[in-house]
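I am still getting used to C-alpha cells and would like to learn alongside you. Please make up or recall a protein chain and show it to me in full. Would you write everything just below, so we can both look at the same thing?
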Amino acid sequence: MRRPGDGDSHLALAERIRAAAPDAALRSSFIVGFPGETEDDAEELAGFLSAIRLDWAGFFPFSPEEGTPAADLPGKVPAAEAAERVRRLEGLQERITAERNGAQVGREAEVLVDLVEDGTPVGRSYREAPEIDGMILLDRGRAGEWVQARITGSYGSDTVAEVLA
C-alpha cells in the first residue's frame, strides 16, 4: 500500500507517543488479505498487535478497486482465507481492547453524552471515536451534555461510568 515505515518504526512511534502522553489512546485500521500476503505475514501482524497494544483497531478484507495499482497485483488471497484472518485478528484485538479498557476503571473522564438509548445515557471521551470505537454507558446525563464521570467497569469494548456531582 506504499505506506512508509515498518512494524519496528511504528512501534517506536507508539512508544514515543505514550512516553510524552501516557493517557493517549491509539487506534489504527488494517487491510487483511492484500495480494501477496502470506500466513506468515498475518502472524507477523498478530505479533505486532500484541506488542503495540492499540486501544482500538479495525480490520477489513482487501477489496480490489478498479484503476488502482493493487487491483491487478498477482497473489490474490482467497476471500475465505482473508475473512478467516480478519476474524482471528479481530479476536486478538478484542482481547487487547478489553484489557486496555479494564485499565481505565477508577479513572475520571470528561464525557460527551451522545444519546440516551433505552433510558441509558451513552457517551464517549477523547478515547472513543464516534460510531467506530466502544462507548461509555452512564448512570445519568442528557444528550449533548458534557459530564465528569468515573469509570466503574468495562465490558469488552465498552465501559460503564458514574457521573460525578
Observations:
- Residues 11 and 52 are 6 Å apart (CA to CA).
- The helical segments are 7-20, 39-52, 79-102.
